[in-house]
Automatic annotation (TrEMBL), chains A, B:
L-homoserine binds at residue 192. Residues 351-436 form the ACT domain. This is Homoserine dehydrogenase. Keywords: Amino-acid biosynthesis, Methionine biosynthesis, NADP, Oxidoreductase, Threonine biosynthesis. Pathway: Amino-acid biosynthesis; L-threonine biosynthesis; L-threonine from L-aspartate: step 3/5; Amino-acid biosynthesis; L-methionine biosynthesis via de novo pathway; L-homoserine from L-aspartate: step 3/3.
Amino acid sequence: MAEPLRVGVAGLGTVGSAVVRILSAKAEELAARAGRPIVVTAVSAREKGRDRGLDLSRVAWHMDASQLARANDVDLVVELIGGAEGPARACVETAIEHGRPVVTANKALLAKHGVALARASEEKGVPIAFEAAVAGGIPIVKTLREGLAANNVSRVFGILNGTCNYILTRMEKDKIGFAECLADAQRLGYAEADPTFDVGGFDTAHKLALLASLAFGVEPDADGIYVEGIASITPLDLQMAEELGYRVKLLGVATRTDAGVEQRVHPSMLPKESAIARVDGVTNAVEIDADAVGALVLSGPGAGGDATASAVIADIVDIARGVTPPMFGLPAGKLRSPTRAPMGRHEGGYYIRLSVIDRPGAAAAIATRMAEQGISLKSIVQRGRESESDSAGGEPVQVVLITYATTEASLRIALDAIEADGHIDGAPQLIRIEKR
Amino acid sequence: MAEPLRVGVAGLGTVGSAVVRILSAKAEELAARAGRPIVVTAVSAREKGRDRGLDLSRVAWHMDASQLARANDVDLVVELIGGAEGPARACVETAIEHGRPVVTANKALLAKHGVALARASEEKGVPIAFEAAVAGGIPIVKTLREGLAANNVSRVFGILNGTCNYILTRMEKDKIGFAECLADAQRLGYAEADPTFDVGGFDTAHKLALLASLAFGVEPDADGIYVEGIASITPLDLQMAEELGYRVKLLGVATRTDAGVEQRVHPSMLPKESAIARVDGVTNAVEIDADAVGALVLSGPGAGGDATASAVIADIVDIARGVTPPMFGLPAGKLRSPTRAPMGRHEGGYYIRLSVIDRPGAAAAIATRMAEQGISLKSIVQRGRESESDSAGGEPVQVVLITYATTEASLRIALDAIEADGHIDGAPQLIRIEKR
């Protein structure tokens, strides 16, 4: 059997510890699959003393990840530090400079510096693999990069953040508000102390940028993504969605359109019976629509130490076997710079919830403003007041409109006019409907 | 750019024609992905004259697939003839003898001769790839062989035959019998003139043997699979399943048990809300349960020219790039010969439907026979007669029992005793319940 592949693991959190543990526990089988032993020879983390349940007695310890990346006894560097800059970036760049393959779960780093890293890695002839950076244990990177080589992908979309899906699922099931649900998720360890990155949609956006690159052969373009989080979703929206045959999910969606690549992250309504709509809790799921294969759906755990380590180790085994495809499927020089399809050009159906001040003519004025923009309404639902006696008070009533496909630009004009007319109280709630 | 990879395609049915068409239409992008051009230089099929909508003017035509496999202008052989013996086997063996990589969709060939072919291909140092042999366009082979290298798989199961799933879905929806539904499927082209291979479960068994090999590191063992088809399923069973919270699917299931590898193909009841239960029509879906990744579900088209060609071409691109993993994930010499877990040792819940001759003591006798084998009943449903006046006639009534987990051996003993007691009319209907 060939020489062992000596692995340095930078970052010993949940994922890093699981990688070290599984590489040791399954050494024999992994060697058979890889054609050579895979051995952890070095690790790096901030706190040396912490008990991680790992035997690190025969492993070199580096306080500095970049030092690990250039250590003489390391052939491959696993970067699990996280963050687009700082020690993670330095570690990956150092590894490449020294001609060492990199396996990383760092979506922020790749969404921002992916193309530069791909170029550097190609110049040095060493691979960077990142299965673990998107949708945890789901082999979506491999599927897009290798499994669908024969396809033109028209759309890739899905649930890429377990925290958001957990919150939306619980809000729906327990009929509780966003804030209460978030606090609960934090207590259970499903949400960070600072949840902005997750619930604001930014984590999903980083992952989407990588998926869009793999799917469409373009450079990752995280800055070109339209991003909305889930904080504005109310239990009433979820209930209305249910009544109208939809479920609300935070989706990342990348679509090839005539106007360019449309990338967006926002709460979406999906027909209840669609595969992605049915995915509950912390599970992730991705659908790929492509010309040859049709629709392909992958679902599984999007996070967790062992599931993410599963993706990291699959990459290590591939590299041990000499499998080194271009990072984003195509050589970096062949990735196109994506034309950004502006959000105003987005076409689709919309769910609009308005707090309408109940006075004569309000409904007619709203309908007129929609009609002026050529927007057809598929359904209109008014949530009546509890008792007749309230009817004279001029208190707002909730009116939900479902539109047929229109452009975002037209809809925004109509909503601005409705607001200017003074018939509604507060900003309209708008949730885009994702077609099957 | 490197030398072109010259491909010979043996078999120009729907899939073969799609392979030739897509390789030509997407030549440029595929070359970028593969690092070298991929060119079809030779084809082989029985009827030369037929119009397949392909320009074959610059392609060598071979009447004999084995001749194609040893032609001088062929670097890689795509075998799409089908069948475990005859020209398909000769073509693949010839290609390997001549040191040419093979891409095949031939599940029958691999289920029967897979180990011998894996050994021969390793001796010659040429790969055999077979993504298209299982679940059409779903990249399940790549996922098991490469994506889950870090995992011990405990179970792999799913809907692997679109014809059966189409029939069961329609029987359920339109409340029609198996024979009528089959005739319909034949008219629509979803079922062959001789449907035995599909509806008898044998096609599923071939695919399952390959999945089990990849999942558990064992030699494919199609002869060790317990196989039942769907012909015995009635609309009443589907209706009862619905009422009890289940759906009926023809599943292939391979499980790692203490007694060895359990492989079985039969109609199964799945909890309605499970991912696999929700898959309708000709779609295929596979769930993998594994220690690191948890549960992973892949669904997509299980057949069709373009979807299957997508899998064939992904394999070609991999080989063009030099990706040549061992055929079944591990080197042939490391595949274990599976210990077959006997079906009598199978443990699970059961749906039992009995035509009970309605006379005093029948129910008590049946319950006693179950209790004698230590089988607990989760529910008992009796389909009452339409009118009271029938009650004296001694006509059979339908009684459905749902058992808690028991062994198949115990259940068979109980059912034999119930039959011997003479309280039932005809053989019991038995459908195994697959746990989530």
